[in-house]
Amino acid sequence: MTVPKSSFTDSRCRVAERTRNLRGSSLGGMLLAGMQPVVETVSGSYPSPTLLINGIDVATGRPPTDQVCCRLDVPTREQIVTALQKAGR
Fold it and tell me: Which end of the chain is least crowded, N or C, by CB within 10 Å?
């Protein structure tokens, strides 16, 4: 089983904190299972907020775009958990 890498773009947008909290609660299950995912906060030219698991945008399932903008498609808990499970295989 590989250890997933979770990256979050550093953002001050109004939905960033909600996405950060969802990431934290989703990672909790992996910690209970004995996995220690790599978690980092990065800055870059991404839509805000963007949560990447192993370089893939959780909300779209594709590599991130380089457009700086506010996004409305904030990832759900289910999307985050699914991405973490896929990455952990």
Answer: C
List the one residue out of 30, 13, 2 whose CA is nearest residue 73.
Answer: 13
Q: From 66, 43, 51, select the one nearest 20 (Cα to Cα).
A: 51
Q: What is the DSSP letter of 45?
A: S
Q: What backbone torsions phi and psi does residue 26 show, to the nearest 5 degrees?
A: -70, -35
| The dihedral sign for the CA sequence 31, 23, 43, 10 | negative
Q: Do 27 and 52 contact (CB within 8 A), yes or no?
A: no
pLDDT of 15-52, one tens digit each? 777 887 888 787 776 665 666 667 777 777 777 788 88
> pTM, whole model, 2 decimals?
0.71
Beta bridge partners of 57: 52
Are the CB atoms for 88 and 5 separated by under 8 Å? no
